[in-house]
Fold:
Amino acid sequence: MQCSWKAVILLALASIAIQYTAIRTFTAKPFQICPAPNPLNCGLGQESDTFDRICDEYPYFTYNVSRKTHILILATTRSGSSFVGQLFNQHSDVFYLFEPLYHVQMTLIPRLSHSKNTADRKVLLGASRDLLRSLYDCDFYFLESYIRPQPVNHTTDKLFRRGASRALCSPPVCDAFAPGEVNIEEGDCVKKCPSVNMTLAADSCRERRHMAIKVVRVPEINDLRALVEDPRLNLKIIQLVRDPRGILSSRIETFRDTYRLWRIWRATGRKPYNLDLSQLTVVCEDFLNSVSTGLSQPHWLKGKYMLVRYEDLARNPLQKTKEIYDYLGMSMDKNVAQWIHTNTRGSNEMSAKHKYGTVRDSAANAENWRLKLSYDMVDYTQTVCQQILHQLGYKAVSSPEELKNMSLTLVQDRTFVPFL
Ligand SMILES: *[C@@H]1O[C@H](CO)[C@@H](O)[C@H](O)[C@H]1NC(C)=O
Ligand SMILES: *[C@@H]1O[C@H](CO)[C@@H](O)[C@H](O)[C@H]1NC(C)=O
Ligand SMILES: *[C@@H]1O[C@H](CO)[C@@H](O)[C@H](O)[C@H]1NC(C)=O
Ligand SMILES: *[C@@H]1O[C@H](CO)[C@@H](O)[C@H](O)[C@H]1NC(C)=O
Structure:
């Protein structure tokens, strides 16, 4: 039998789809009762691939969701998203989750952290949207089917970055800390709290008025259209962007294996021939697609889109956070203000604690990449990301002196008003 590469791809693809179908079947029960009188908009238009069909079978939410705000932080790794996540995590009325899509990717495409295959991408996105829908409905059982090993008795200690969610470190999920404890360290939570009981997690989610989820595995805003248009959700997107030069620098420091060749470039001054340039260009392309869509104000995003530059937040955290809460139509509680106060004064001893920590990434460090990247790396980035740099108001430098002269900011003043 001849086995062409197309057949191989097709086969691989079929197996992902089969896994996904299996997962869907396995968890079909919660989706079967579906009195939805009007499956309007579900997976409309270009997004109506088969994986959004689920929408038709999805149960109508059992409580009045029109009052609940479903916040989605659309970000990419090392763009300051942990910081933005904290602005919601600290709010006593918000249930916050840190990147649940990690489990979807690990289950469906375990070995490819960044699949470039568009069909894989479609399956992932469809599955991701389904998961987000069920989570916004405080259904945590659906998530279980993506967790390895499979949770027993609805309990797991493998929930990704569980400690990053205050709600999952507090009653009723965990009694290890005093009620109202403000600064629960992620590591302490993981150590002291028992495994997550998903039933209790769901209870905790229902008790809170709003829900915020941070995702870094959705490439661009158009991928979310089916969710945005879902009438049962009250989705509000906060798209977080950061200077791609800053993202690159931060990733080089953090993801030591996958960005190894970039470090070689930086150390030797010579670009390795086998450097995976897509690690940079994908960021810029995704930003460009999203931002172009968002700022063109399509009808489906009305009232549901706000663009936030990380640098603006770093420069003026309290003010910017107020603007974000205004856009959401929510009030910012005192815990949030307190957290900002404590974490943006840039005490540097605290910052070394954990590399995904929020403190380290805050205010003072937003332009630190300029001292870390070499000029030719910056120059290269400016060439391939020219359009998005310009659109977001990040100034290009034309000499090493300009790059290293920190008395000149490269962040131009821009106002991005939410699309109301
Ligand atoms: C849901 O809540 C909104 C706002 O509080 C209210 O106007 C609406 O009547 C409620 N709907 C139902 C079905 O209770
Ligand atoms: C799950 O619950 C059942 C019934 O309560 C119990 O017999 C079983 O030991 C539990 N399994 C684990 C791994 O805790
Ligand atoms: C999880 O919490 C639910 C609700 O309180 C409880 O009924 C169940 O026994 C708990 N599961 C385990 C394994 O403790
Ligand atoms: C940095 O830029 C400022 C403002 O243009 C300039 O006055 C200063 O001389 C520059 N410093 C260096 C070391 O080039």
The longest strand covers residues 235-241.
